[in-house]
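We store chain and fold; example below:
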Amino acid sequence: MRCPHFDRGECASCSLMEVPYPRQVAELQSDVADLLRDHVLTDQWQEPFTGPESAFRNKAKLAVGG
C-alpha cells in the first residue's frame, strides 16, 4: 500500500507502512502466540483473518463471550 503523505514525509503515524503486509501478519501472529502460549491450546489456533491492503475500514466491533 502506498500513501502520498507518508512518502512525502508529512505523516509518520503508520509505523509499519514499509513492512510488506504478509510479513506484518506473520510477525503479529507470532507475537500474539507468544503472549498467549500459556493460556491457549496450540490446536485451537486458526489461520489469521486478513483483509485487503487498501480500500478497507479500520473499525471493528468485537465481542467476547465466556
Observations:
- The chain is about 30% helix and 0% strand.
